[in-house]
Amino acid sequence: MLLRLLLAILLVMTITAVSPNHGKQGDVIKVSAAGFARARVFVGKNLCGTLRQTQTEIYCIVPPGLGTVDVSVYSYKVEQPVTLKNAFTYDQ
Description:
mainly beta
């Protein structure tokens, strides 16, 4: 029990990069991070369709959108999403 509590405290989910950082609907992006576990990615306010996921990377299909938006990762292990501000720009 104590070990689980310590692991939960040490678990920190972070986004380190989004690549490419621009594109259009239907493109594939890679979100690099630490601490992913059954995570979902949102580009702006829209769900990015997951293709493949590991503990450090999620590949997903860019949803519709406009302008420069945040990229957020939601995981069942944490209460609040982790967000990288202005991380993706939709090409015109």
